[in-house]
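Severity: low
Component: inverse-folding endpoint
Summary: output formatting inconsistent between runs
Steps to reproduce: submit the following structure tokens with default settings.
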């Protein structure tokens, strides 16, 4: 082989190796302190939706109208993020498809893969704890009312949970919301 052919062959091999290097590079570098959301989990996609749902650009990228329920929107977001990762749209992935920092109790619960209560769960919690002073203190924000069991209904629990979900993350409300606001909650022990 002459020198030109050897040089071209060597350049081709080096180019192939360099190309392979870029193909196997992770989408996010380790020093970016971000984690791409797990495609096998559901809660993280709900948390992403809650974090960005008011952002017009987010709604545009994910073709959201704002009227979707959280379950439908989270599936749509997950599927679009899979495609963005596959197509190597690094900037969009970094902006919209990473685990968010939880700003509310609700987002924290979804990131921890909890499922929020249904009407039946709220009814069950109410029936089990309506005569418990600790329960009463929590759902009335410390305002004791000796008639709560007689005059109240499960909607007090539901209202408390919905209000608490919007609060910034704090240990006391997070603990109480885990006891009262999750599917299969057992209440206070």
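Observed output (run 2 of 3):
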């Amino acid at each position: 082989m002459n020198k030109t052919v050897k040089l071209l062959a060597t350049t081709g091999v080096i180019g192939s190796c360099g190309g392979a290097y870029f193909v196997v590079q992770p989408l996010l570098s380790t020093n970016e302190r971000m984690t791409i959301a797990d495609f096998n989990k559901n809660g993280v996609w709900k948390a992403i939706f809650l974090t960005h749902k008011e952002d017009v650009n987010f709604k545009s990228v994910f073709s959201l109208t704002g009227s979707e329920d959280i379950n439908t929107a989270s599936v749509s977001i997950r599927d679009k993020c899979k495609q963005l990762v596959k197509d190597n749209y690094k900037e969009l992935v970094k902006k919209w498809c990473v685990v968010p920092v939880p700003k509310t109790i609700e987002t924290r619960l979804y990131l921890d893969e909890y499922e929020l209560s249904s009407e039946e769960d709220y009814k069950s919690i109410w029936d089990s704890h309506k005569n418990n002073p600790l329960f009463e203190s929590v759902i009335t924000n410390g305002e004791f009312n000796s008639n709560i069991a007689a005059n109240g209904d499960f909607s007090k629990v539901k209202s408390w949970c919905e209000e608490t979900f919007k609060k910034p993350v704090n240990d006391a409300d997070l603990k109480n919301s885990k006891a009262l606001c999750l599917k299969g909650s057992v209440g206070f022990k």
